[in-house]
Amino acid sequence: MLDNKWKNIKDNMLIICFFGIITTLLTVVFIKLGTIIVNSDGSFHFSRLEELYQDFRNGSMAFIASHTFNSTGVGTFLFYPSILLYPWVILRLIFSPVTAFYIWYGLMLFVTMCIAYYSMWLFDKDRIRAIFFGVLYSIFPYHIHLGVVHTVIGEFLAYTFMPLLFVGLYYCLTNKEKWYLLGISWSLILYSHVISAYMTILCVIIISIIYVLTDPQSIKRTIINLSKNAVLVILLSSFILVPFITDFINAGINSPNSETFGFLDTLQNIVGISLTNTADSNKSIGILALFTVMVGWYFVKDSRTKEKVIYGLGIFFLLCTSTVVPWQLFNNTVVGKILGVIQFPYRLNTYAGLFLMVTFSLIISRFIHSIANKKARVLFNIGIMIFLIISYYGSLTSLFVKIHTSQGNLLKNNTELTTFIPNDAVIKKENYNNIFKYIILYGETDYYPKEAFNKFWNNVSEEVNPKINSILSHKVIVDGKEKVKIPKVASNCIEYNVKVDKKEKIDVPVLAYKRTTVMLNEKNINYAISSRGTVVVDGNKGNNRISVSYQPSKLLYIGMMISVITWIGLFIGLIFSKKDKLIR
Fold this sequence. Notes:
Layout: H1 2-33, E1 36-38, H2 42-57, H3 76-79, H4 86-94, H5 97-124, H6 127-138, H7 141-149, H8 153-159, H9 162-173, H10 181-192, H11 194-214, H12 219-236, H13 238-248, H14 267-275, H15 286-300, H16 305-320, H17 334-339, H18 349-369, H19 374-395, H20 397-405, E2 425-427, H21 466-472, E3 475-478, E4 481-484, E5 488-490, E6 493-500, E7 504-511, E8 516-520, E9 523-525, E10 528-529, E11 534-539, E12 542-550, H22 554-583
Helix pairs in contact: 1-5, 2-4, 4-5, 5-6, 5-9, 6-18, 7-8, 8-10, 8-11, 9-10, 9-11, 10-11, 10-12, 13-22, 14-15, 15-16, 15-18, 16-18
């Protein structure tokens, strides 16, 4: 038995090395080019990273934005999970900003491959299938789209843990010993992206309900296992849940804009885009997934029930990304309120890709196992891997063309405070910091107080949203008069120096939250909240040094301790359980 154990360890180490080689081949070109095209959510996430980096260098955690997001003190870091960005932060300490990003991107591809491989191994115990699934799932066009085309980093991170979540659900429903994988993976998804966590919990609930309806005797077992996972999630994620409970609920804070069921497209157009195998579009599932849709039924018809269910789920989620599902009819209904949180149905491509690549890995593994000649089998494996790498770079052709043709069009320094960063901004290490001189494209005003808004969320002009415009323009308001002042910033602290001729109320352009703290000339003081949701103090005659910072709840630190202790307990429990198995 020990010999088998060591053989498995050796095989897994070789596979990990293989994934490392593949990942290097998938990222080395980007590192050599040294150029990032920033669009969509990219400026939001690069700003998040920069704030974490600046605060980490100073030995502090980030709670509010002081160095980035126009130094408004917005609570992005309270309500948008950032913990999984710290490996990127550490790389940023060592490498240039562009190189650090691409190494982090490669690291996440590698981790995704390993998790997908492990998940498939738990599901089927077929090593060939698990290896191919690891690669196929990692280079799925929608995943690449999230990672380097549109840099939707939160969703890109969440994608990593989806295979583990669904194999965890499978183990949970079938009452196998690794029931806890569901809670662990869902917590990691929550660490990455709140909307993805919401979407996955809906999937878990719906699949669990269908399962117990087909097997009524499993109701008690399913409820017990799901309840245990729910408790595990609360313990592991307590430090993320606490700020929502203490600072967000009933606090009048604007959540990210939700255009209900936006960017819909017909199935015909989705198929057409997918035939091009491009990662440019968020609607493309690629030619391999389309091939699986067309021929997968042949390979699963004589397979186990779970393979048929997975193939069916893949097709179901693909249809759900299109207008085949009448999404707009759900507007202003209970169903619409529940599902509208996902914002864009194309996000379901994550699930379509997961299930269709599970089926495609079945097709490949069956074909490989049918080859009797060992040399022919090895050559076929090598050929398929080469094809997959070529397919990956083929899906990124448009991005490479854009990088090569835009080398002379670098993002310029910006002096206008309320100018949006242009789409497809070209970034190299020399102009990287120019990103933070602009208003970010999407997400700048997420988590602003609701009273700051006049009309449209993404319009910051003085005519449409004068309050937001005044905050972003660093306008200090004294006696109804506005004056632009540039703040002094430090980790979680924004300071304005304002001189007045008499006692006046001074409204500084820093957002106020439940636990915002204010110092006036180095003394803690009470403050009021203005009509634009910012800090107002009673200023004294002469110079007023107003420092606004944030003091987190003690519950947050307790939540961190609970999470750390739970993680440690899980690892210790797993180590001892494996030792017991070896002894037996």
